[in-house]
């Protein structure tokens, strides 16, 4: 798939929860904004960066370092919490993306917002944004925020071959969840659900 063909497909209506559901852990339920409003969730924006790799389109992921927290060592998209000085979710996503992996707004083309998602274990409301790049990004990692970055060919995500049911230790105990497996890493939970909506949009 070329970048231009990708853009054509990305114009389709968002699948929303129906697209996210394929990778939704069993302990999650679809929720409405009215459901989560009383929880006063923290707010964040993340960047789903799709770029032209050496042979095909790839999607950028990062791994959080080990720390004493809910998402220790997990795979995520670059991005982070909305601060008071951020104009909106997209501004927060771009700012955090640059802070974490040095991928600047000028080096990526904003394309569209994706469906919001609520993360129960950390009480986060997240808005993802798709950006595009004509070449692999030259990243520089903030070791306090990022352990490593890697990318997955978009075609491998679309064909479903990376998905396995996987035992994961969570705050709810050890659960079997759907996950993408790539390069020794396990992508599950919110990041997998965002990926699943992207895949559903492109199929």
**First-to-last CA distance:** 12 Å
The major pleated sheet works out as:
8 strands, mixed
- Spell the H/E element sequence: HHHEEEEHEEEEHEEEH
Work out the number of β strands. Answer: 11
**Strand content of the residues, in percent?**
25-35%
Structural class determined from secondary elements: alpha+beta
Number of helices: 6
> Could you name the CATH topology?
Nucleoside Triphosphate Pyrophosphohydrolase
* CATH hierarchy: architecture: Alpha-Beta Complex
- Shape call: globular
Mean pLDDT: 93
| Name given to the CATH homologous superfamily | Nucleoside Triphosphate Pyrophosphohydrolase
Verbal overview:
With 203 residues, the protein is an alpha+beta fold. It has one domain: Nucleoside Triphosphate Pyrophosphohydrolase (Alpha-Beta Complex), CATH 3.90.79. It has six helices and eleven strands. The chain has helices at residues 3-10, 17-20, 33-36, 89-101, 154-158, 189-202; strands spanning 42-52, 57-63, 75-76, 79-81, 109-113, 117-119, 124-133, 148-153, 163-170, 173-182, 185-187. The strands form two sheets. Strands 1, 2, 3, 4, 5, 6, 7 and 8 form an eight-stranded mixed β-sheet that branches. Strands 9-10-11 form a three-stranded antiparallel β-sheet. A hairpin with a 4-residue loop joins strand 1 and strand 2. The longest helix is centred in the C-terminal third of the chain and has 14 residues, at 189-202. The termini are close together. The model has no long low-confidence stretch (mean pLDDT 93).
